[in-house]
Design a protein that fits this description.
Blueprint: E1 6-7, E2 13-16, E3 27-32, H1 43-52, E4 55-60, H2 69-74, H3 77-93, E5 99-104, H4 106-117, E6 122-128, H5 137-170, H6 176-199, E7 201-203, E8 209-212, E9 215-218, E10 224-226, H7 227-231, H8 233-244, E11 251-256, H9 264-272, E12 277-282, H10 295-313, H11 324-334
Parallel strand pairs: 1-9, 3-4, 3-5, 5-6, 6-11, 11-12
Antiparallel strand pairs: 2-4, 7-10, 8-9
Helix pairs in contact: 1-10, 3-4, 4-8, 5-6
C-alpha cells in the first residue's frame, strides 16, 4: 500500500511572509533542510512558526538539492555552506536586522557555520538533530577511506607517477616517446579510477512520509548518494563540532532519543560544553524530529529567546565581512 503513496514535487524554497504593522514586531526566521531532502520536510513546522509567533519564514534546501539526481551527486559539503551563506546574506539585506536560524540535520551544520561567520546578523540558532557525527562507525570509516582515496591518494599518486617518469626521462633512462606514453597512460588510469569512484553510489533508504490534508504522502528525497559526495560530510562535521564549542550566539539543541543516524550522546556532550546552549531531548523521537509533537513549542520558545537576547549582543561581535575601517566608523556613528 505504501508503494502507491503520492510523491510530492521537489521544491527548493518555501517562503511565508507576514505583512504586519509595525514590521519591526515581526520575527524573521530562516530554515535549512537536511541532506538528501527538500524543504517540504520543514513545511509544517515553518507554517506553525509563521502563524503562531507570527514570523516571516524562509525555508530552503541545500545546494544541489533540486530534484536532479546528477546535480545532487556532484554536490559537496562546501557547496552547502557557501550557497546557504549567500542566501542568508540576501535575506538579511532585505531589512538588515538579525535573523533566527533553524537547521535540521546537515542543515544544522550549515547554520552553525553561518552563525560563526556572521554573529551580529544572527539573533540565535536552533539545531534540530544536528549531524555532528554519524552514529554508525562503519559510515565514518567508509567516509574517511573514500575521501582519503579520492582527494589525497589519487592526486598524490598521479603526481608521484609523473615525477618518476620525468626523473627517468631527465636521466635519459627512457626515450621521449616511451615517457610520453607512460605519462599519458598513467594520467588516464588515475582519471578512470577517479571517475569510477565518483560514479559509485550507496542506498539512502526510502523517502520519509508526511501528512498533507489528512493524507499520507512521500516527501521529496534522493534514494542514493555518491560515496564521494557523502564522504565530504565527515570533514564538514569535524569543522562544525569545533565551531559548536565556540558559538557566541544563543543556541538551542534538540535531539531525538531514538535517532539512528546521529551520534546523540556525542552531540549532547558538545551541547553541554557551551554555557549559552539550551538542550532538549525528545526520548521517543527518531531522526526526523521536525514532525514530532511538541517540536513547535520548543522552536517558537527558542526563537523568542533569540530575539530577547539580540539587543545585548548586537554591539559585541563583528562579522567576517566587516572590515576594521567599517567597524571603527560604526563605533563612531554609535557614539
Amino acid at each position: 500500500m505504501e508503494e502507491n503513496l503520492k510523491e510530492l514535487d521537489w521544491v527548493t524554497e518555501i517562503r511565508l511572509d507576514v505583512p504586519v504593522t509595525p514590521p519591526n514586531k515581526v520575527q524573521r526566521v530562516m530554515m535549512f533542510s537536511g541532506f538528501a531532502s527538500s524543504p517540504e520536510v520543514l513545511r509544517d513546522l515553518g507554517t506553525a512558526i509563521h502563524e503562531r509567533l507570527p514570523a516571516s519564514v524562509l525555508m530552503h534546501g541545500l545546494a544541489g538539492h533540486t530534484g536532479d539526481e546528477q546535480s545532487f551527486y556532484r554536490s559537496r559539503a562546501w557547496h552547502y555552506w557557501r550557497e546557504a551563506e549567500e542566501l542568508f546574506l540576501r535575506y538579511w539585506k532585505e531589512e538588515e536586522k538579525p535573523l533566527a536560524l533553524v537547521g535540521y540535520s546537515t542543515g544544522a551544520n550549515v547554520v552553525l557555520t553561518i552563525a560563526a561567520r556572521h554573529p551580529s546578523k544572527v539573533a540565535g540558532i536552533i539545531l534540530l538533530s544536528p549531524y555532528l557525527r554519524a552514529k554508525s562507525t562503519a559510515t565514518v570509516a567508509l567516509s574517511y577511506a573514500v575521501a582519503g582515496l579520492y582527494y589525497l591518494a589519487l592526486p598524490l599518486g598521479a603526481i608521484a607517477g609523473l615525477a618518476y617518469i620525468l626523473r627517468k626521462r631527465k636521466r635519459k633512462s627512457w626515450p621521449k616517446r616511451r615517457a610520453f606514453e607512460l605519462a599519458g597512460g598513467s594520467l588516464l588510469g588515475f582519471a578512470a579510477a577517479a571517475r569510477l569512484l565518483s560514479s559509485a553510489t550507496v542506498d539512502l533508504g526510502e523517502a520519509p512520509t508526511l501528512m498533507r490534508d489528512g493524507e499520507e504522502v512521500r516527501a521529496p528525497h534522493y534514494e542514493r548518494v555518491s560515496i564521494v559526495g557523502g564522504s565530504t560530510l565527515v570533514p564538514f562535521q569535524l569543522l562544525t563540532r569545533w565551531i559548536a564549542r565556540k558559538t557566541v550566539v544563543p543556541v538551542t539543541y534538540v535531539f531525538g532519543g531514538k535517532d539512528n543516524v546521529v551520534d546523540v550522546e556525542h552531540g549532547v556532550m558538545i551541547a553541554r560544553q557551551n554555557p549559552m546552549a539550551d538542550l532538549f531531548m525528545l526520548s521517543n523521537a527518531q531522526h526526523r524530529i521536525v514532525t514530532e509533537p511538541g517540536i513547535c513549542d520548543i522552536v517558537c520558545t527558542a526563537i523568542l529567546r533569540c530575539f530577547d537576547e539580540e539587543a545585548a549582543r548586537q554591539q559585541e561581535f563583528a562579522d567576517v565581512d566587516i572590515t576594521p575601517d567599517e567597524k571603527s566608523q560604526e563605533s563612531a556613528d554609535s557614539r
